[in-house]
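Title: Prediction job returns without error message
Component: structure pipeline
Severity: low
Priority: P3
Assignee: unassigned

Description:
Job completed but the reporter wants confirmation the result is attached to the right record. Sequence as submitted:
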Amino acid sequence: MATGLLPLCFGEATKFSADLLGADKTYEAELRFGMTTRTGDAEGEVLSESPVTFDEAALRAVLPQFMGKQLQVPPMYSALKRDGKPLYELARQGIEVEREAREITIHRLELLEFSGLKARLLVRCSKGTYIRTLAEDIGKSLGCGAHLTALRRTEVADLVLPRALSLEEIAACDESQRASLLQPVDSLLQGLPRVDLDEPSARRFSCGNPVACDRNGLCRVYAEDSLLGLGLADESGLLHPKRLVKQAGDDRCQPD
């Protein structure tokens, strides 16, 4: 039921995998109105059925209320834990516990298609957003209930689905060619401002020392077009190493 983009990190790129987990994501979601399920999606037991009496104009009218920052209660069928146990394990035992609402942000919510009982939406959202819960909440606001029938992730940060490869496409390539399919590490960091250092500053930075910088905040740092890592520039004009990338044959921190 869930398809789409799954970023895979290898080598030095794994140092930035946490940034991908926290990044904004974009989905295409298909909703089925007039029916609620135990899991909030098509895999769960049907709980209720109601007539669908609204039209496309009514659907478009309710979508803006789900835009922006808001509180969302995570579903019971989720991997969140309570006392060390995933909530979905408790849910399968028929146990429901209170969940604290969490702040999420819906940056973009567009109706792509509507056919009476079903709708397809584009959703760009912050980390921690449950699209199943969003589907249920939209159905509730329309008075008929809804559940998610399909979900396709199309973007993670600056990574987009059209540039992705399927496992079948990768398997069809000669093993010697597979490394060329990988995106460079800094493709994960394109949303950050760039700082270029000269050789003396690059040496200091790569050894974990701060260097002078005229920027502020988190930056991607380079020397001669080679990514050194992430730096955090403060208001005093210093750029502090935050996460360094190992360079092939790097001897910057070796004594002269």
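Comment from assignee: result matches the submitted record. The first helix runs from residue 17 to 21.
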